[in-house]
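Let us begin with a simple case.
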Amino acid sequence: MRNIIKLNENWFFTKDTTDILCNDGEKVTLPHCWNAIDGQDGGNDYFRGSCVYKKTLKKSELPEADLYYIEFRGTNSSADFYVGGEKLAHHDGGYSTWRVNITDAIKDETEIAVIVDNSANDTVYPQMADFTFYGGIYRDVNLICVNNSHFCLDYYGGPGLAITPIVNGKDAEVTVEAFVVNLKDNQKLVYTIYDKDENELDKIETTDSKVVFQMKDVHLWHGRKDPYLYCCEVEIVENGEVIDNVCNRFGCRSFKIDPENGFILNGEEYPLRGVSRHQDRWEVGNALLPEHHEEDMDLICEVGATTIRLAHYQHDQYFYDLCDERGMVVWAEIPYISKHMPTGRENTISQMKELIVQNYNHPSIVVWGLSNEISIGGSDDDLLENHRILNDLCHEMDKTRLTTIAAVSMCKMEDPYLLIPDVVSYNHYFGWYGGDTSMNGPWFDKFHETHPNIPIGCSEYGCEALNWHTSDPKQGDYTEEYQSYYHEELIRQLFTRKYMWATHVWNMFDFGADARAEGGENGQNHKGLVTIDRKYKKDSFYAYKAWLSDEPFVHVCSKRYIDRVEDVTKITVYSNQPEVELFVNGESIGKKAAADHFFYFDVPNVGESKIVARAGELSDESTIRKVTERNMDYVLVEKGAVLNWFDIDAPEGRFSLNDKISDIMATKRGKLWFVGMGLKLKKKMDAGKKGEKKSGGFDVELDSKADSGLMQMMGGFTVLRLTSMMGMMNVSFTKEELLKMNKKLNRIKKPKEK
């Protein structure tokens, strides 16, 4: 029988070396991530290089077997594997399972060593993206001990069998293909189907590597409503003895994606409204444990999501299993992201093969993602060819699922790469990165009108929020109140457009992005509905819960915003109940109904007030307090900023760095100023590119293909915010330069309000 032994204990780790003979370092337990701290603290200076992991295997402690395989569930991003000083394997791709046959190299006492490398290169994806490329052996390592006759362990890290259910009315035809090595004449294969309660339903004994089960009155896997799972076990049997076995769960379901009616599951409209997920955690990096995955899934279920986009790479098998169990509809993708590398084509192909082979049996997955924001600098012939190869590969390997891409805002609607996949989604940040919130819905309407036969979705949208607060939220202020406003607007626009096949909030959780310097807390992207440590659910979390969850609740927003200067303040309540009543110091100020689940109350702000919201038996409360001066603890003061917004001279009726570029460009003199500023910006960017270092940070390449789209996006930025964001592209302005820029803007009159 197959034996699987975890090898997570007693590894010896040495940082910044490729010397497998070195004896300096520390003892570690896997999963392990060497960027768990420096990958989240900002500065874009986290360690990217090679490290060595070593461990000793004693043959006397291993089960007897004909063959021994080492299985790595995740090594980021490239790895060289040695046994007894001899190199046996190399693997490129940091997010998938890979295995090595070590049978012939095992001695009585054998040292195994792995050189793991997350340094920059031009062949392995990802190399440019807005998240930290954490290094390490950050998932389990196993020793798999098998007979000479066994289910294949060499085929792209797969499970050894592929299960293909095809639903036809009330029945299903389930094809099971087993990948068997060295099946002998006196051996047979026993295929067995079990129900959810492990009752045997059907059995086939044969020597064929492919069989078909006819399942009558099949119990469908129906998303969160009924995530029913069967199990298929295949055994190699010799003289009544089981030599090897594999077992996978599967679900029977049908789906289609309709350009008018969205996602349809088992013949029923099933709106996909959900979130994207990065896998990292505070001071853990990517080295997640099962309880971390479970907590993430619990939170995603609580918010009421029906879908998860697992960005931007292959996630842990344990999490895909949770998606199957909880009924999440999944978008799975490879890290072909941000920057097309002509020398990286083979890596996109190998990563896609691993993604499909290793995840083929998960009923939760419905689309394979080809790429993310890859056309940010425009599409060329090599990029298009790479996508066609990947698209054809997906359809060849899996005839049951569709393909998709996540295009970026500046990708024009007529771009030929939009015609390659089966369905399309866009990453839009109107209302955060330029533009305003009202642009989102109309943009999708225009795409739907332009391409009526292409299903369209929104693969990313969101804005950042930290513990900053205001009664007058503005785009770019990083307050929890603006994030709430933003998501209220986007929910109204996206969720009411039936044709949208899926919407995915960016992001469910804050995540590490070491190059970021935004919001007063460097090293993270703070667009999450929940903080990176999973300890605080932001108010916007409850906005989605109000729309998506059936769990009755009421939530008072802005609990951390106590001190307020205004005489009458706005209190926002989220609830999925039809009516909410608000009490101030025990007195009711009225009841309100809200079809959109967002309840707004104007509350007199006198002294200290206890606010209680009630919806039937449900209640939630907060406190506000009248103050004469604004509490600056609520105001973002950028750490290390050259200039903060409140330090800028802004005469009444004149422009300043605090004004939006679109407003400035609405005037003749403002346009002239912007042209001059653009020339300076381009000069700085060109100078930066000459000494450009490769990094895992956020980057955008401005060229003639992307300029027009970027210019449209930039209109919603204040000048100060745009200049600060340029820091992520290694473009910086001195205080003197900014003050000089502001002085020029002060000379330009604002148009008189009509």
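The second case is a distinct protein. As before, the sequence precedes its structure tokens.
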Amino acid sequence: MTTIRLTAAQAMVRYLAAQRTRIDGSEMPLFAGIWAIFGHGNVAGMGEALAESTETLPTFRAHNEQAMAHAAIAFAKQSRRRRMMACTSSIGPGATNMVTAAALAHVNRLPVLLIPGDVYASRRPDPVLQQVECFADATVSANDCFRPVSRFFDRITRPEQLLASLPRALDVLTDPAECGPVTLAFCQDVQAEAYDWPESFFQPRLREPRRPRPARNELQAALEALKAAKAPLIVAGGGVLYSGAESRLARFAAKAGIPVAETQAGKGAMPRDHAMAMGAIGVTGTTAANQLARQADCVLAIGTRLQDFTTGSRSLFENPAMRLIGLNVQPFDAAKHGALPLVGDAEEGLAELSAALAGWSAPASWGEAAREARTAWNAEAAVSLAPVAASRPRDPAVIGAVLRQSRKTDVVVCAAGGLPGELHKLWEAGAPGGYHLEYGFSTMGYEIAGGLGVKMAEPEREVFVLVGDGSYLMMNSELATSVMLGLKLTLVLLDNGGYGCIDRLQRATGSASFNNLLSTARHVTLPAVDFVAHARSLGAKATKVSSLSGLETALKKARRSLQTEVIVIETDPSEGSGIGGHWWDVAVPEVSARPAVKAARKAYDAARKAQKLV
């Protein structure tokens, strides 16, 4: 056996660089690069290994560890999980900064390889700088925080452990069912230790996604349920896009006459002008999709984990005779809510269903009802999106301005707050990948870093980042990184003076406005944040507009720019569009001195009666 002597860090870098993928017939590196913020615990071992491998595994520098992991995750999502990135950090706060991002990737089923430095395996200099000491367990380190939010976790305490751990890590990262974050906590002394590695370990490995086909018995049960349906509905989740099944879905829906509603992750799976496209579903859904969901007697849920925003906290599907079919590559998701599981790849599953249902279609009256509902919704949405003369417009009007200036190939990026709800209902994605929302973990601060990852994945597309002032203030550092890397973003920063979305939710549950808007939080002087000056200080171009027409003019100018642009507009936090949507289970206090809270609790108890727990 031929061997090569390398440090453990060098071996890891060489192995990652050897992983390959194939997209549209072209073979390319699976890892587009690695984000690194060096510090105590990774600067010597991983730092030296990466410095000598810049051609095979490019290294990118960020300003915040959580943000760099967000960028890596956004890259993988925009690449439909076919390519990915890794992140390495120091052993202390640098490592724990990435835990939030790991949870985000875990919830959203997205691949990212996290390589935080760890304490000394030898324990010779213990306790080292930044080491967390557990009085009862000497094996604990800060990186144990990653265990519950990693699909696979390992602590590398010997170089040769990588021979088994790296292949397992890559199997998880590239498996459509297991996919999620992998953490390899890398002891800092081990990173620098040498070992005689088999050269065969570093041979290029082509990794293509597994496409399991449904079992015959599950397929038969699903077919029987569909053929008996008079009012079927499809719920398209992110799995449709990750499988590349959107064309198959469009053909299937047209032939079978089945309306399609989309989750946050699945938005863009259907062409916006498709006769069966009903738009968003659930708590942030369209009137059309939710109307059909209430009546549906059979729901085919494809590639979705059916979280509460999709199901209206288990109250949306009102038909007592409704049968649920879960077409999902992950058995855990396929069987949720008492569904008939149809475990398999979305593309393969739809192909099997389409062939077996040849000649069958839903009643024409159901399709006509769907088209009428969509037409009515389009008119309703147009009112919310229309220009207004208000000096502080509401979010929907701002979205309308951005939408009017968008093109089919553009991408909109957003995350937490009220904007995702309005975007889910109102944004019309021009093409798959044109709608990039992080709403599984609803992470404030994802927006700018996520936009950076999207731009890295598809640099030819214009990327619009819609972000509120709350999220911007929480994490804005990667604005400087976008400038540094020459990756142009266009930010529309909506300044509503605080956390407007949660303020509305607070008031909707009977409480007074408290501690969400800056004006209702404890203060001596309200901060007058100059967002334009701040963005410029990070290297971006920036301007503030005072009207929607000014916003559209600024967006036209930003499209011609080659540099990251920030456009600031003040908005009204008091209310959203008020259209579409469905009830969401937000627990209201049973005991309160406030009459409004008592009334909200009474309404809450009534609404809970509609929930289906099985």
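The first helix runs from residue 8 to 18. The mean pLDDT is 97.
Keep these points in mind for the review questions at the end of the chapter.
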